[in-house]
Design brief:
alpha+beta, Immunoglobulin-like, Transcription Regulator spoIIAA, 6-stranded antiparallel beta sheet, 22 strands, elongated, disordered N terminus
């Protein structure tokens, strides 16, 4: 009993923090207007917009002001609207919109948005206590967390394949040596896929500020995502299976060009092989042991003093010959090119960067280095 009381107290305190004075919420709907595939929602504490992109993709935007600023997207392709709305029901308390694939249910008092399949089975919805809100400049969206929900995605992250029970930040960081729990890392991919009631779906958060995702770390009732500033702009993506969800995601952000066949094979890379004799020895060992491998990478130690576009005069004295020998063994050679240019007045790349004013600067005009 003592332990149960403690747990209840902790949860009570946690929820009290979320509903404290610093957090504000969207509140009740005061007015809705529907124009083709877009629903404009005026709120007590802001504005929301529901935009149907296809029968399976819905865009949600929220901002705590009388209008939503238009923000350029660095990720989403120009939207091609291809949706068939089969039914709309707008009453005093609820708004429902149907497509051949999904049903969107909107509670108005307060605003809560839910997504269901065409048979009415729940896929995902806002948490009843929070929904959407903000704290200072930070903006949030809370979703119900169900016992059967895993969370996959976010790109290059630690802590296993299923991200449930963890919290993550999206902020590109140069972390050359990291632990199994380090976060953030090199890349930011604010997209995750889940399954509830056997139904696959995903969310994509389109915001270029620092973003965050909490998949039930510290509780088992809700998960949330948001950004340090800007508009809460996210997409709900439905699909018959995870593959279909990913295909729909590709419709939003595009897909990579089909790589060459050798690019689909195994590629050997670590933090530097040098000198050239070690690289050739490694390649020969792969072939001797009949281990399939199509590419060998050369990291920063092939360079002359970490100067990009150069070869070390001793470690790789005959680069053409080395690359040719690797090619004869069936290997492509990939050399790393750093976006950071060495500060060296005698280095021709540095000289060109200075003369052409190509380098990034701080707001005060000094170089970022």
């Amino acid at each position: 009993m003592k332990y149960s009381g403690l747990i209840l107290l902790v949860h009570f305190c946690f929820f009290s923090i979320l509903i404290g004075a610093n957090f504000q919420y969207a509140g009740n709907v005061t007015k809705t207007s529907i124009d083709k595939n877009v629903v404009q929602v005026q709120l007590e504490n802001g504005t929301a917009e529901i935009q149907l992109i296809t029968d399976e993709i819905v865009r949600i935007r929220f901002y705590p002001a009388a209008s939503i600023p238009e923000e350029f997207s660095y990720a989403v392709l120009p939207l091609k609207i291809d949706v068939k709305i089969t039914q709309i029901s707008d009453t005093e308390k609820n708004l429902e919109i149907s497509t051949p694939k999904i049903l969107i249910k909107v509670k108005k008092n307060p605003l809560r948005i839910g997504f269901y399949d065409h048979q009415g089975t729940l896929i995902s919805r806002d948490h009843d206590s929070f929904g959407m809100g903000w704290n200072g400049t930070k903006i949030y969206c809370w979703k119900e967390l169900h016992d059967d929900e895993p969370f996959y995605g976010l790109g290059e992250k630690t802590r296993g394949l299923n991200k449930r029970g963890n919290a993550f930040t999206m902020w590109n960081s140069d972390i050359p040596a990291y632990s199994t729990t380090q976060d953030p890392l090199y890349q930011s991919h604010p997209f995750f896929l889940s399954i509830h009631n056997g139904i696959s779906f995903a969310y994509f958060l389109d915001n270029s500020y620092r973003t965050f995702f909490n998949f039930g770390a510290g509780n088992n009732q809700f998960y949330y995502f948001g950004a340090d500033d800007g508009v809460l702009d996210y997409y709900f993506i439905y699909g018959e299976d995870p593959k279909a969800v990913l295909e729909n995601y590709g419709r939003l952000v595009g897909t990579m060009p089909l790589p060459p066949k050798w690019g689909l094979g195994y590629q050997q890379c670590r933090w530097s092989y040098y000198p050239d004799t070690e690289v050739l020895s490694l390649a020969k060992k792969f072939r001797d042991k009949q281990i399939p491998c199509d590419v060998i990478y050369l990291d920063i130690h092939y360079m002359d003093g970490y100067r990009v576009f150069t070869w070390h005069p001793e470690r790789f004295s005959q680069p053409k010959s080395t690359v040719s020998q690797l090619s004869e063994m069936g290997f492509k050679t990939a050399v790393i090119i750093d976006p950071g240019i060495k500060v060296d007045p005698d280095y021709w790349v540095y000289q060109q960067g200075i003369s052409g004013d190509y380098f990034c600067r701080y707001q005060d005009g000094t170089f970022y280095q």
